[in-house]
Design brief:
Helix content is about 40%, strand content about 20%. With about 350 residues, it is an alpha+beta fold. The protein folds into 2 domains: about 100 residues; about 230 residues, 2-Layer Sandwich (BirA Bifunctional Protein, domain 2), CATH 3.30.930.10. The strands form 2 sheets. A 7-stranded mixed sheet has the order 1-4-5-9-8-7-6, with helices on both faces. A two-stranded antiparallel ribbon has the order 2-3. Helix 2 packs antiparallel against helix 4. It is rod-shaped and about 130 Å long. The N and C termini lie far apart (about 100 Å). Bound molecules: phenylalanine (PHE).
């Protein structure tokens, strides 16, 4: 090597020049703090290129040492400062972006989360339950897919009774079940039998649930509807107890000034039987469109448990007597709120359902 070599020709100096160019490009090209850190490690890290260069200085011949050492240290000083400046700039930009992304516009209207409510049918069932629980009743349930025995036979319903016909009752396909006595219960009365089979008197039970009949939907019929069954069995239960119980129920449900009347009727499983009316909730008994001018609205069927039914469950008919009743939940909802068509209850139109 000659003493008149220019700086650029000196390999040490050339490498410094090269590193500086690379460092400038890396700094300018770094789009994030992470990029910049990568560049720093490449140059100034423990195995960095500039670090290696600085470590190599001590092995250079004395005449190079001074020049290369000085330039390398200048490059290092410049680079450290440049890294810091560029780092600050990038951090500021990143923070800005972060703040912009997290910005909360307090002037925006709140997000509306609509609350669900209980369906009117469920609400009425709970209301009925509350009234009877208040009189000491407990709540029982039974299957919707029933056996002929519970739905008809043990309820003293003769095999020739018209309600057993295919026109009135949904039977479960015999080819699927392997038997011909499986059906969708046509009322909640089978729960009476199931409760009596499982317990001994005294018993005071209500049983809410779905029932199914082969009806074409119209303003007052639906092939699926809800009933609440009631059953009380004890020593010395009389028709007077039934009347008092239902009167109390009607007044709690429809208002304290309601009158209740019993009309003779027939059910196979009660004797005597009655259909029970409440004075019209709309006109108070004067006669209007809703009560068809009679002043009365039919709300349920009821009667004293037929001794034949006690025979099916092995109750002592000399010792015990009881009453039973069954009410249509949709009908009660319609009467209470003046709903003109049962189908509103099953259409799932929120404009209707949200009113309750
Ligand atoms: N199960 C009868 C019906 O669905 C109602 C009823 C229940 C009548 C209990 C008397 C006693 O029509």
């Amino acid at each position: 090597m000659t003493s008149d070599e220019t700086r650029g020709d000196d390999p040490g100096m050339r490498e410094i020049e090269l590193l500086r160019e690379e460092a400038e490009a890396a700094l300018a090209g770094a789009g994030s703090s992470a990029d910049l850190e990568e560049a720093r490690v490449n140059l100034l890290g423990r195995k960095g290129r500039l670090t290696a260069l600085l470590q190599g200085i001590k092995d250079l011949p004395p005449d190079k040492k001074r020049m290369v050492g000085m330039q390398a240290n200048l490059l290092k000083d410049w680079l450290e400062k440049a890294l810091e400046e560029r780092g600050e700039e990038l951090r500021r930009r990143e923070l800005d972006a972060e703040l912009r992304a997290e910005k909360v516009d307090v002037t925006l209207p709140g997000r509306h989360l609509p609350f669900g409510t209980r369906h009117l049918v469920s609400a009425i069932i709970e209301e009925i339950e509350d009234i009877f629980i208040g009189m000491g009743y407990r709540v029982a349930e039974g299957p919707e897919v029933e056996l002929d025995y519970y739905n008809f036979e043990a309820l003293n319903t003769p095999h020739w009774h018209p309600s057993k016909s295919l026109q009135d009752t949904f039977y479960v396909d015999a080819s699927a079940s392997g038997r011909e006595d499986v059906l969708l219960r046509t009322h909640t009365s089978p729960v009476q039998i199931r409760v009596m089979e499982a317990t001994t008197p005294p018993l005071y039970v209500i049983a809410p649930g779905k029932a199914y009949r082969h009806d074409v939907p119209d303003a007052t019929h639906s092939p699926m509807f809800h009933q609440v069954e009631g059953l009380a069995v004890d020593e010395g239960i009389t028709l007077g107890d039934l009347k008092g119980t239902l009167e109390h129920f009607a007044r709690r449900m429809f208002g304290e000034d309601r009158a209740v009347r019993f009309r003779p009727h027939f059910f196979p499983f009660t004797e005597p039987s009655a259909e029970v009316d409440v004075s019209c909730v709309i006109c108070g008994g004067e006669g209007c469109r809703v009560c068809k001018g009679t002043g009365w609205l039919e709300i349920l069927g009821a009667g004293m448990v037929d001794p034949n039914v006690f025979g099916y469950v092995g109750y002592d008919t000399e010792k015990f007597s009881g009453f039973a009743f069954g009410m249509g939940v949709e009908r009660i909802a319609m009467l209470k709120y003046g709903i003109p068509d049962i189908r509103y209850l099953f259409d799932n139109d929120l404009r209707f359902l949200a009113q309750f």
